[in-house]
Amino acid sequence: MIFDVDGTIADTERDGHRVAFNLAFEKLGMPDRWDVDSYGELLAVPGGRARLRQYLGGRGMGVNELDDVVPRLHELKNRFFVDLIRRGRIEARPGIVRLVDELQVSQITVGVATTGSRHWVEELLEVLLGAARVGRFGAVVTGEEASAHKPDPELHLTALDRLSCRPEAVVAVEDSALGLRSAKAAGLACLVVRNSYTAGQDFTDADLVVDELGEADHPAMVVADPHGLAVDGPVDLAVLRRLLAAGPGVPPST
Ligand code: XBP
Ligand code: MG
Known about the structure:
Elements (H helix, E strand, L loop, with lengths): L1 E2 L9 H15 L8 H7 L5 H11 L4 H24 L9 H10 L5 E3 L4 H12 L1 H5 L3 E3 L12 H10 L7 E4 L2 H9 L3 E5 L14 E5 L8 E4 L12 H10 L8
Parallel strand pairs: 1-2, 1-4, 2-3, 4-5, 5-6
Antiparallel strand pairs: 6-7
Helix pairs in contact: 1-4, 3-4, 4-6
The structure holds xylulose-1,5-bisphosphate (XBP) and magnesium ion.
């Protein structure tokens, strides 16, 4: 299993990264503030630095100033974001802790592939999932370790390599069309957990789409089930095994 972070393990963007970006703008005395809707548009650009660069360049900031301001803003943003994490302002999405436990109890390899920065990714995972679970992850691949971001498959391919897993044996969990495209380009089956920012995106190629994974006391909120898995409970290991068996991934090598 390879988990995406932002939007998947936690709903980090609207009330997390966006708030931290605005605190960084304020700290540097800049007039910019990203409201919920405009940040949703900006999420089309993966990577916080690239997002800043595209936005500030788009409003006329010159290359020299961008080279100076963008790294400072991003560093500040990550510090503010870690502060939000430590103050408990970010929570794991429903079903994530349950599913990680189930996978790890069954000795299933679990990894992470995210565009996000290592500076905050490890802190977020430890605070949301606990050091014991994170310590059992086979790999945590972050944005700095790839020259290309999602939808390029490099992050997923790096995670596959670190986990020593064959693509046809792995399910990726993603929240966005960018993440889905990266997982598919890496030859993985993909479960999509939509969120408020990504609900309207194109998930035609996903192997299962839900709005929520569900918990023991309530079923997953299924949006699209192209393989006819007929999920009537939470998304659990049994569902994932059936998804893999039915998924259009690379045919299992003999
Ligand atoms: C989502 C991203 C990240 C975050 C911000 O990554 O594109 O850039 O928005 O984090 P994923 P950084 O869904 O792959 O986890 O500012 O650290 O990039
Ligand atoms: Mg994501």
